[in-house]
Specification:
With about 260 residues, the protein is low in regular secondary structure. It is built from two helices and four strands, in the order H-E-E-E-E-H.
Length: about 260
């Protein structure tokens, strides 16, 4: 997932003018695309609507900063520190964020499609309503993280810990949770169509009440499906609908014949 670091560096080398100077100052609403701000400290700064797409933010400290509506498209944020930052509605599409430290960080309504967040610490982070389609969260700490109502379709969530995390109402269609520890995680009302939850730890004490699954969903044998909702194949739904319509039609015809 995401751009390979070497590939990203080559692209930046082509875009930046030869001998370009480092610009240490970041400005809210400013255009800082493809700039090099690696290893800088910009903690507790107001940087709303800033554009850092394609920028090098390796090991940059942005903890506690306001980055509402900011753009980080394809940015390099390897080992960056985002603890307590506010990235509400930020665009982090295809951002390389391996090893990011984002404890208690706000990502409400943010876009992280195809972002690489492997081996990151996201404990207590908020992702309600965020889009994380095809995101890679492998090996990350997701304890007490809130993904309520988020879209994680096709996400890779393998080998993570999600103790006390919330996926209520989230879309997890086609997502993979192989080898993950889901102790007391909430999946209430989540969509798990075609998801892989076949190899989980502590699945027996995880809440799947009202979660949707289908014949393509792979479930750990310890998951209690009695309170889950099974959705039949589309073909089966068509046949079921046709049968119901047939019964209604027969009832109407019978009523007409009796009146006649």
């Amino acid at each position: 997932m995401g751009l390979h670091i070497a590939t990203w560096a080559a692209l930046v080398a082509l875009v930046l003018p030869l001998g370009a100077a480092r610009a240490d100052t970041l400005v809210a609403g400013g255009d800082h695309r493809f700039e090099d701000h690696s290893f800088e400290t910009h903690a507790r700064e107001r940087l709303d609507a800033i554009d850092l797409s394609g920028a090098n933010l390796t090991s940059t400290n942005l903890s506690g900063s306001s980055l509402v509506d900011a753009a980080f498209v394809s940015a390099l944020l390897v080992n960056a520190v985002l603890d307590g930052a506010d990235l509400t509605r930020a665009d982090l599409t295809a951002a390389v964020m391996t090893g990011v430290q984002a404890v208690d960080t706000v990502f409400r309504g943010a876009v992280l499609d195809a972002a690489d967040l492997r081996r990151s610490d996201l404990e207590g982070a908020d992702f309600p309503g965020a889009s994380l389609i095809w995101v890679d969260l492998s090996g990350s700490n997701l304890d007490f993280t809130d993904f309520g109502g988020a879209d994680l379709s096709g996400a890779t969530v393998n080998g993570v810990t999600t103790w006390g995390a919330n996926f209520s109402g989230a879309v997890l269609d086609g997502a993979s949770f192989s080898g993950s520890d889901v102790l007391k995680t909430r999946f209430n009302g989540a969509s798990l169509l075609g998801a892989d939850l076949s190899d989980l730890k502590n699945a027996a004490i995880t809440d799947f009440t009202g979660a949707y699954y289908d014949s393509a969903t792979l479930l750990d044998p310890e998951i209690d499906t009695s309170r889950m909702i099974y959705l039949p194949e589309p073909g089966g739904m068509v046949l079921l609908s046709a049968g119901i319509c047939g019964l209604v039609a027969c009832g109407r015809a019978r009523g007409v014949s009796l009146r006649g």
